[in-house]
Structure formats: structure tokens, C-alpha cells
Amino acid sequence: MGNKVIIIGAGPAGLSAAITLAEKNIGVVVIDEYLYEGGRLLGQLYEETPNKWWNGIAESERLLARAKELNVEFSLQTSVSDLEKIDQDWVLHTNKGVFHTKQLLLATGAAESPFPIPGWTLPGVMSVGAAQVMTNVHRVKPGKRGVIIGVNVLSSAIAMELQIADVQVAAITLPAANLLTINSSNPLEVMNSLLYVSHMAPSPLIKIGSKFMKNEILKKLGIRFYPKDGVKMWGIPIMLRKAVIEIVGKDQVEGVVLATVNIDGSIVPGSEKRIDVDFVCIAGGLYPLAELASLAGCPFHYIEQLGGFVPLHNEQMETNLTGLHVAGNITGIEGAKVALAQGKVAALTIASKLGASVTQIDIQQAIENVETTRANAHIQFHPEVLVGRQKMKEIWAQTLSHTLS
Amino acid sequence: MTERIMSHPILGDLPHKEKVSFTFDDQLYEAYKGESLAAALLAQGIRTLRVHEETGHPRGIYCNIGHCFECRVNINGLDGERACITPVTEGMVVKSGKALPTTVRDWRKHHGK
User: Which of A239, A247, A399, B41 has its CA 20 to 30 A from that of A282?
Assistant: First the structure.
């Protein structure tokens, strides 16, 4: 097993890397904790262009079939709890025993940030990604009628997916303002971030509105006069002037208390109103899931545009630790197509180290493909992701010059 | 009450799958072979998977993909297993998570401290 490359994470980045390596006749083992291969690609479902759907399950099946054809090995339901470097090997400790490898790729993806709101521990409250997986992957409705707390790219995309599956979304609202919801509870901030997803809105009203809103003064006016009952997107009210201040229920979710918020996010006293729902989704956004890189000893940098703390890495997807690579959302929050492209870069970098026929031009082309894919992305999780990528490039160059001097 | 999505406008009809049975707190339930325990229980209206070890408040799934450990249950005698990433197998014995004794606090309560 020591001669095979190990990839942790069977999502888009991991699968794409596994296929690329196997195509170069390099043995690969892909480890994943989940029941199925595909990672969070599985839940994805959206209309890229009219009548052309991005179906994550079909994409996963296609990648998996290719990987299996190339004899990529999979070890599912395998949780990696620790990793360490012993001599030249990365040693992984899992619930299915110890794995050794000289070349390790971390493609662990992302996790969701929660909003702690009174009542959020009641059964029936779940992350928005949980509702997506229940609906699209397991084909079980999270409930009959719910509210989504948190207005962002992910929550609006999943709201539509729930609606397609005949699960009613009563509203998408803001979370109540508290120390942990600072930007997500401020109507103006949220409106700003929404302007970048306006191309996804089928309603011409929002499209025209968002062009109009690029001016700061108009934006303030816009949020001041934003309808209290929200603007409808796909028939779902998006309420930028309401916040959920409490989730109520005895043994499970029975409703939420909504209140009107001022443009600074503060609550209008006396505006509280209860609505009945049987489930609640919390959409606090995504951050890179990078604990294993931390255990390995990678230096981390906080880059807001990439979604949080990211392990130091270069464009070739190398970390500064020998034999340790990263690809996909662990390097910054972006869509599955970017992850697929990054997986290929990481695999070519690893393959070249293992003496396969890979030229620097091949790697360079794969890097350029990441950039093109990013530029053409349907969904941008952070509007300034390019700024974030540039920051990481600069930090890498600085760190490297320190090491050399 | 929740339900299964048998047909979906984009993803199509749910493929026919083999069924298995399992118990949750000594009650018999059915699941599709290989589906997650959390999904099988939710499809049958079970949302509370455990109670908080100290307060006894009900808890269910939160992240549904293995990150948060909110859905921990006892599976075939093993504590702390995550219902969201465990596939149901025939004859699986599942117990919900229970409150644990808080001995110091209980002692204080009973001794007026």
C-alpha cells in the first residue's frame, strides 16, 4: 500500500485527481468517510442554462465509473482521525486501520458555519446542506414547510432545489443579529453580497433592481424601502428586512418568531410575529475543512475571500510539507467545477514527482484550466475569490523567500 | 411528518431498492438497504435521535454529513456512532442516546448545597 498515492476525500477534487493519476498508471486509494463516492457533488442540482441541468448525482456516477474502470481503489466509511509523518511516509490512522503513503492529497472539501439562534438545537433544525442531502441524495423530505435562515448563494440555490422536490420554503430570512452573525444579519451587507448572484435570479425585477443598486445611495434607499414581506425569487419570499429571533417547539420545530429589522440589523420592537413551520435550515456559509492539514503541521492563513483559514499552498497544489498536497475547497470555497480542475493539477504535480511522463507545460495548462473554469463559474461563493487566490500566491512567494534566505 | 420523494421532476423516479428491517429503541422499522440510518428514521417521522447527555433536551440531525456529531446513537452496542453516515443493515439494533448521571450536581441537589 505504501507505493500508492492516497487521496482523502471522494468529492469532485479527489475523484478528478484519482482519475488523472490512474490514467498515468499510478496506483491510487481514495479514502472517504461517507457512504457513497461523490462528496457534496452528490447533492448539487441547478439549471446552468435554460433546460441544461447540472445534476451532481449523474456527474458523480460518471466520474466514479471512470475511476473504477481505471482500477482506482476506494475505502468508504473510513474516518481519518490522525496523520503523522514517520520517516518518508505519511501515516494515516483510521477506523479501518493504518494506511501509509509517500504522496498524500487532502481533498476534504468544506463544512458549514452555523448561526446559533435560540431554539437551534431542536430536532427539525438542520444546516441547509443537510436538507439538500436529505432531499436530493436520500430522497427524504426534511419536512413539509420550512424557513431558511441566512441569505446567500448556497441558501438560494438549495431553496430552489427544495421547491423542485415539492418541499415548501415559506421564506429565506436573515438571522437575528448577535456576535456570531455580524455580517449575515445586516440587511445592507447581505444586499451587497446578493448583487453578485443576481444573474441567478429568474425574476427580471431582481435583475433590473440589482443593476440599479450598484450605486451606494440607491442601495441604502433600496434597503430602506425593501418590502417588509420580501421580494419573491422562484416564488420564495427573500426577506432582507426580517430576521428569525427564535425557533420554537416543544420536542421538535413547530415554528419561528420573525421580527422586522432596521437597516443596521437591529430589531423593531413589537414587530415579532410567529409563523408555523416544521423544519428550519441554517445557512451560515461554507469554510474550508482543513483539520487534517492542521494535524500535519501546515501553516495556515486567514483569507476572507477564500472562506476562512486555508493551509499554505502554491498553484501546483503543493503544501510546504514534502509529499502533502491539497485540492478543492480545502484551498478556498468555490464550485465543483473548479475543484475538478484543481484535482487534475494536484494529480499532475504528484505524477511528475513519481516519474510519470508529465511536463511542466502539462501542469501549466492544467493551472490555466483552473483559472478559465473560475472565470466561467456559474456560482461564485465570494465575489472576490481572485483577490483571495492572489493573496495566497503572494504569501507562498514570501514564505519561500524566507526559507531560502 | 416527512415523506419520501418517490418521483422527482429532474432526478426521476426513485429506483426500486431492497428493504431491510432494524430496530430503534426496540421498535421495528424498515429501511432501504444501504441508505443512511438518519434518512431511514426521518422518512418514518423519527427526528429525535438522542437527548442531551446533561439536560435531557431532544436532539436530531444537524449537518447530515458526519461533521457535527449531533446524530450520535448506539448501534449494535457501540456508543457515539453517527446515524447520518451509517448505512442501515438487516437486523441492526439502534438505541437513542440517553441522559447521563451528573453525580456531583445530583449530590449537591440532594444535599441542599
Answer: B41
